[in-house]
Every structure is written in structure tokens, then in C-alpha cells.
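in:
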């Protein structure tokens, strides 16, 4: 089990470039807000810690996790943003609603990323119960929001590096 081995807030700072010149869109789902708002804090604070400017972090709130891909697309259409972080929490219930939401959101974000060439990060917890969510939203397994922020920074850095290299060889 991945979380038994890895704390979600642990990362190698040497892997990260400064986020000073990067812009981010955060799309935050309000369902399970006691959890998602903790994920948001972890994410936002990590971006700021690594140099992102407040004015370059654009946040919107959407009703639920299912709305994350559409919210991200709306943000992408209206702002010039390097990388998107989508934050939600879908707790398994008595029905299979969680599977429909999780699969469509994961697929939606993959589609957005592949089509746009920009990162759309899946910062969604998919726990079996509330305790598993608490453990991963600043609890004993760290904070998935931190992991999502670090992933976004690394992907934006890759995109920027490739653009620079492209200019160097004169295309
Ligand atoms: C309807 C629903 C349910 C049952 N559970 C969750 C959940 O655990 N986490 C979450 O983010 N959203 C949930 N939703 C709401 C859906 O994401 C969506 O907002 C509604 O189905 C309307 O499209």
C-alpha cells in the first residue's frame, strides 16, 4: 500500500525549481470541505514556500469533485496559467457513486492534460472512510495537497525547460 510506505508531505526539495515565475490554477471542491480545505492549505502553502507569488495563484471553488474537470477547463479558458491542481475528496459510500465520480474525473483530467500540453494534477483523495481521509489531509500520512503542489511545480518546470531548449535550437 503506497501510503504505508510514503508520507504524502515528504518530497525532495532538490527536485524542485523555484516557482517564482510559475502560475497556478487551483480548483477546489466543496464536498467534504473539512478535508478538501485542509488539502488546499497544504497545496497553497507549498506553492508559496517555493516562491510562487500570491497573485499568480488563481483559486476557484466548485460544488463537488465531479465538477473539477469543467472548473479547470473554465479557468484554463479565461486565465493564462501554467499548471492546474484539482482538489477533492470522494468518500466511498453505500453505493458505487464514488467509482463513477473518481473514474470520470481522472479521465477528464488526463484528457485536459494531453489535449492542452499542460499539467492538470489529480489532487483527489479516494478513501474508504472519513478516517482514511483525515489521515491524508494533514494527518499521519501527510497531506495530499502538498503532493499535488509538488507534482504541479515539477511538471510546470519540465514544460518551461522544454520551451527554453526549443528556443535554443532555433525552431
Ligand atoms: C453526490 C456526491 C456524493 C454522493 N458524494 C460526493 C463525495 O464524496 N465527494 C464529492 O466531492 N462530491 C460528492 N458528490 C457530489 C458530486 O461530486 C457532484 O457535485 C454532484 O453529483 C453534481 O454533479
Amino acid at each position: 500500500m503506497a501510503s504505508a510506505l510514503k508520507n504524502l508531505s515528504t518530497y525532495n526539495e532538490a527536485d524542485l525549481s523555484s516557482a517564482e515565475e510559475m502560475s497556478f490554477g487551483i480548483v477546489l471542491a466543496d464536498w467534504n470541505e473539512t478535508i478538501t480545505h485542509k488539502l488546499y492549505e497544504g497545496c497553497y502553502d507549498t506553492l508559496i514556500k517555493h516562491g510562487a507569488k500570491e497573485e499568480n495563484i488563481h483559486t476557484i471553488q466548485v460544488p463537488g469533485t465531479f465538477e473539477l474537470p469543467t472548473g479547470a477547463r473554465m479557468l484554463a479558458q479565461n486565465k493564462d496559467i501554467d499548471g492546474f491542481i484539482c482538489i477533492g475528496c470522494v468518500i466511498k459510500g453505500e453505493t458505487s457513486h464514488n467509482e463513477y465520480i473518481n473514474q470520470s474525473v481522472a479521465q477528464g483530467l488526463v484528457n485536459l492534460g494531453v489535449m492542452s500540453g499542460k499539467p492538470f494534477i489529480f489532487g483527489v483523495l479516494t478513501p474508504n472512510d472519513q478516517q482514511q481521509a483525515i489521515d491524508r489531509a494533514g494527518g499521519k500520512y501527510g497531506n495530499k495537497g502538498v503532493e499535488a503542489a509538488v507534482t504541479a511545480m515539477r511538471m510546470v518546470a519540465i514544460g518551461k525547460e522544454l520551451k527554453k531548449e526549443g528556443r535554443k535550437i532555433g525552431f
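note: The mean pLDDT is 94.
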